[in-house]
Amino acid sequence: MKKRKTHSSGFKTKVVLEVLQERETVQEIGRKYDIHPSQISTWKSQFLSGASTVFEKGVSKTEDDKEKDALFKKVGQLQQENDFLKKVLGK
After folding, report:
1. Residue 22: which H helix or E strand, with range?
2. DSSP 52
3. Is the pTM of this model over 0.85?
4. 24-33 tens-digit pLDDT
5. pLDDT digits (tens, 9 = 90+) for 56-71
6. What is d(CA 26, CA 63) in angstroms, rounded to the nearest whole number?
């Protein structure tokens, strides 16, 4: 069974920037790095959709980040309650 390749964000950025320079086609770049052209197109879309946040002032959290923070807080609270109940019940 073939293991999936994982690429760093730096590598993905490098590939996307090459695509945006338009010196080579997506197919040529895909062959160069042994990556399927549709994967490169996905990375390009992700890159461009996040590009608008580069010049925003301050640190702004996305809705996903806010939701994650709330969930981590809730998990921590439940863990403390669980530990307290274990002590009280003597388990």
Report:
1. none
2. G
3. no
4. 999 999 999 9
5. 776 666 777 888 888 9
6. 32
